[in-house]
Every structure is written in structure tokens, then in C-alpha cells.
Amino acid sequence: MPTAEINVFNPVRIHFGNGIINMAGEIAKKYSGVALVVTGGESMQKTGALERLLKILKDSGIKTFVYDGITPNPTCDEIDEAAKMAREKGAGLVIGLGGGSPMDSAKATAVAAKGNVPVWEYLKNPAKDALPVITVASTSGSGSEVNRYSVMTNPKTCEKPGFGYECMYPKEAIIDPEITATMPPFVTASTGFDVFVHSLEASAGKAANVFSKAYSLQAFHLLKNNLEKAYNEPENLEARGKMALASAFAGLAINISGVGIIHGLEHPVSGNYPKVAHGAGLAALAAPSLKYNFETCKRNYMLIAKHMGVKRMDKPDDEYALAFIEKIGDMLKAVNLGLRLKDLGIEREKLPKIAKEAFTTMKFAMENNPVTVSEADALKILEASY
Amino acid sequence: MPTAEINVFNPVRIHFGNGIINMAGEIAKKYSGVALVVTGGESMQKTGALERLLKILKDSGIKTFVYDGITPNPTCDEIDEAAKMAREKGAGLVIGLGGGSPMDSAKATAVAAKGNVPVWEYLKNPAKDALPVITVASTSGSGSEVNRYSVMTNPKTCEKPGFGYECMYPKEAIIDPEITATMPPFVTASTGFDVFVHSLEASAGKAANVFSKAYSLQAFHLLKNNLEKAYNEPENLEARGKMALASAFAGLAINISGVGIIHGLEHPVSGNYPKVAHGAGLAALAAPSLKYNFETCKRNYMLIAKHMGVKRMDKPDDEYALAFIEKIGDMLKAVNLGLRLKDLGIEREKLPKIAKEAFTTMKFAMENNPVTVSEADALKILEASY
Question: Which of A83, B70, B272, B340 measures 20 to 30 Å from B307, CA to CA?
């Protein structure tokens, strides 16, 4: 592998620690005196995180406006609205507060605020410039806090593509376990499983390299035991901290090497069913996808199994690699994510449409999968996940 | 550990691959049409690397000047000369071609070229601005290609401090195994051992965190077997590539968490004896330093031993950790670095001066050591290394 060309770059300043959110004002001041905070309509209000952030910003003399219309699967319309607000209020900085959705949306807003076209246009025409972005992560999952990616859904077509140009890197990422400690159990579980799938797909995909592998292995180490612990002991700041760091490492890994079929298939699932949590969709798709990639990824599964503490005993290779898939199933059950697509309300007759869409909006993920996958294969995986 | 505050940042664009030096012109063009290449007086000429780089730059329309006065332990006078040349020729870019010395010097030159004071002044007065720097690594050791550090010697006082401000990060690092393949065996060995010590000290020091540990572990993986292989098979591009990447990972690790007593003691050794290669000094100091830190670092040694493939068998903890120190001794002997300070021409009566200087110019390294160390302790380690 080291003889293949590698190009890596990540200019995000990462700040991690209990109470580090108190630095948000000092950090934001470097960029602008007027900030637009992009967030959802519920949890950041309920937990008090939004109020806390606004006070910190105000105390540093920053004028703030809030766009709180981001939904769990953010639409391009919401982003266009937020961008309009940024322009109208003269914001020189966009702060994404929340989980993957508001952080992703903050980056897309920062791009759209600089231009005069709907944000969807930037899927075709690369953006060269964006307002500076700061991410304040409230979940440990998307990795969006430390990378350039943004995912949005077109409500007219149900397409849910990802995009990410260099100008979209957050300038700074604020990762505070205290903020993530307010996540309810289902969110802890579903976003935490996203961390696992990011690490898996970034370390196994065709584009994987020594950098994405180093990040992924550290993510597996941090995730091991701590997903369950954070789920069962929501206020355990050590477990929360390790999950928050695991999310960052996995986010750095996918920034380099992208994702594979589990993400490739999940995006059209939650694109068509916007109420489905991304992590729940991933959970339903995991085992059949892992099995589909089995022969090629066997050695990788064994390595991850070792790092995640799956005992080898005297198991031969195949058996040990299969034990890893079982372990993942057990981990999902332990956090109440032992789900199938039908449990998520997906209609069986939609599966062919989903399989098809995976190859359009998530083409790069499908192509990055370690094993070549056809539309017929994709449909079989979806059927097996149903 | 994850509850301690972490702040990480590294904006260097890393390009790795056989023949990737051919991209140097395209990369340099982004920054300036006039470049000063900073290099030594011998090896880059002999191997043809300098000529190759100059042709590539010329073919991209870049006007180049060469400062080739950098010695193995670069002095502040050399850097002031190079900076004067950069100013006089109107260079908008500094390219460091070679091992740690020219790459370090390129960064220091880039700082000094912007100001009007001798570079030594920047040890006291932080630099805010520097010319852009590109590193082209010809050795796999210093890690300088990917971090902000620069080391220079004051020929009047024999002090050899390191410094590194944010403006000193290289914009881009070009890491081409073809270029490193021309290293003679002694250089392969001594720079390669620097990679090991960087990884060790960055992962064990007081400032170590999950980021420096992730980088260090990947460096250990890449280094394992490949130091000897690159030493014995100089043209083995796979081994060269892995060592080059190991150097980069270790360089990223020290950028976050710094070094410890092995470096802290070595700098005054080669500061007082400028003909001593840094890696040879490190080799002489390694075992006594590892033993000094033994009780505190035992678990870390065991972890690294595992990653470097030292068989545990039924050994109890202490024995396994000691087997690691032996393994490092064996690795050094295998590349003809089984040296003591007296073999390097160090005079015994200089040891107290060296011990003293470690606490001035390398204070941060001595303080970062996992075990608190006094001047008397330092002298004992030097005696044991003699």
C-alpha cells in the first residue's frame, strides 16, 4: 500500500475537553463580530446548550443570530433559508451547534451565503469560497465536526447526497463531553454506531491508506466498551469523552478515505424516509453488508476484532472474522439497535428505488467499497436487511 | 486521559508517492514565481536530487536560487545568510530540500527573511509571519517535513535549541521514496532511529494524548522490520516508503506532544560536538534513558513491544518490558548503531556541561519526560551512556 500515492490535508483546529465550550467566544472572535448559529428546533433548546453558547458568545461581544430550522435530515430549502439569514444579518461566521445535521448544514450555509444561487447548485459547481465555520458537537457520531462533508436532502426528489469542498472545512471544532452528555440513549446509540461504520468503511475501502487506518484504529479503541457505557451511563463523562474523540477520529478517517456500501445504501433509505435516523438505517444494513464484503475484508475484520477485544481463542481465520460480525450484532442489541429495515417503516416495494439511487447520489461510496457491487447485489443486501 | 484538554492542529498538505517530486513545480507555483531552495553542500548534489528539483521548478516557470550552505547541525549564521539571500533575490517561497537540517533551516529562513533581526532573536520574540515553506524530504527521520519545528545551533555558545511557531508550518510536504532511496546506510540508520525515538517520546511524555498515540503507533507499525530492511536493501522502495511514512507519523506525533529526555540530552551532545549525527547521539542515550523511565513507562513499553512484534511468550510484565529494551538494542546493533557516547568522541569531562545545558535549551523536553528528572539524574544517564 505505501507505494500508492497519498495526499492528505486537514486544517481544522480541534479543541476537546470538559467545559471547553467556554472558549467558544474567544475562538469565534478571531473570525467575526457577527455570527449565525445554525441548529435544530428542539434538543439544543431543551438541554440548554443553545442558551449557554449564546451567552458565551455575547460575553465575548459577538452579535448572534439563530437559525433553528434544521431538521434531522436537513433539506436544501432549510439551508437556503439559513444562508439568506446569514446574508441579511451580515454574519461573518457560521456556527453549527448540534449533531451531524446542524454541523453539516452550517458548512453548506457558509457556502451558500457567499453565493447567490440555491445551495443545490453547488453539487455540480464546486464552491471556492465560504464563510468561516465553527462546529460545536452535541453528538458523537457524524464526524462532521472535523471534516469538510455536508449531507443534504432534496425534498422534491428525495435525493440525499454528500458534498465537501476545501472551503468547507470548519476553522475550529469545539468538542465538549459536557455537551454530549445530554444526548438521550437512542441518539447516543444511533450516532455512536455511525462512528463504528465510518471507521470500518474508511479503513477497508479502496481508498484506505495508512492515515485513515491509523485514525480508524484509534476510533475502534475508543469506541470499544464506551458505546455501551455511554448508552447505559449517560452522565459518565469519561465514556462520553472517549466517544466524542472516537467520533473525531472516525471523521478524520472518512475525510481521507470516504465510506462504502453501508453508507451508500443508507443515504437513499433516510433520503426516502426522512424520519429514519441515519444510525438506525446503518444498523439495519450492517450485517448483510459485512457479509457481502466478507472474503475481501476477512483480514481487516480480524484486525478490527483484535482491536475491539474479541477473543480469538483457537478460532481459525474464517470463524474469527465471523465472530467479529456477531460481536457487532451483539453490540447493536446491547444498545437496542437490533433493527431490520422493516422495523424502520421502510416499504419493501421501495427497495429497488433505494438500490438504484445508491448508484447516483452515493456513487463515490458504492465505488469505494472494497468489493465491486452491482445494482442487483445492492438489492440483495437490502432484501437481506429487511 | 480523554478528560484532559486537547488542542490539535496541523495544516500541512502531505503528498507521498514514488515520483511525487514531479509535482513540486505545480505545488510551488501556487505560492510564488521565485523560490529559494535551501539545502546542504553535498548529498543532494551527489544524488542528483537538487538538479532534478531545479529542473522540475524551472519547467513550471519558477525562478530559483539555491542556498547550499546548510551543515549537518545548522547554525544561526547559516540561516541568517540564507534569509539575506531570500530577501535580496525577492524569493516568495522557501523550499527545504534534504534531511532534517535543510528542512528545519528552510522554516527558520522563512521566518528570518520576513524580519530584519538575526534569527536567534526569534527564540525570545515569537514570529508572527514567515514566507511559505515547502519541504522535500530526502531522509526519513526528523519529521520536520510535516511539523513546525526547527533546530539550530549557536556556534558561539554551542546551544542547540528547537523552536516552532505557527507561521512555520510547511504549506506542503513532498515525501518521495525515490528521493530517500539514495540515503547511504549510516544516514538510513541514524535518521531512522530518530523516528523510533520521536514515536516513543511523543507517546510516553506528559503531554501525550490520543492523537500523538495514534500517530506513534502507526509509526511503530511502519518502522517494524523496515528500518533494517531499508538499511540492508537501500533500493527497496516499499521499505523506503514505509520508513518515509513512519517519519511523517512520528513528526505529526511530536508536533502534538513533544519529546523527552533522550532528545533533551542529545541536543547538547551534538550542540557541543557538531559532527555527531543526531541519530547516533540518540542511539547512545537510548537504553539508559529507557531504563530511567522504566517504572512509569513499563505499560507503554509493553504496548509498543506488542506493536513492534516482540513475542510475549509467558513473560511477566517486567520481563516483557525489559525484552522491549533489549529488542531496541538488537535493532540498533543490526544497523550498526550499537554505540556509546565515548565512541562518538564525546569527552567525559564535558558530561556535566551537557547535563546542565539540557535544562536550558531543551527545558521543555526535560519537563515533558514522563519521570521527573534532575540535573544529577541527567548526569547519571549520560555516565551510563558513556
Answer: B340
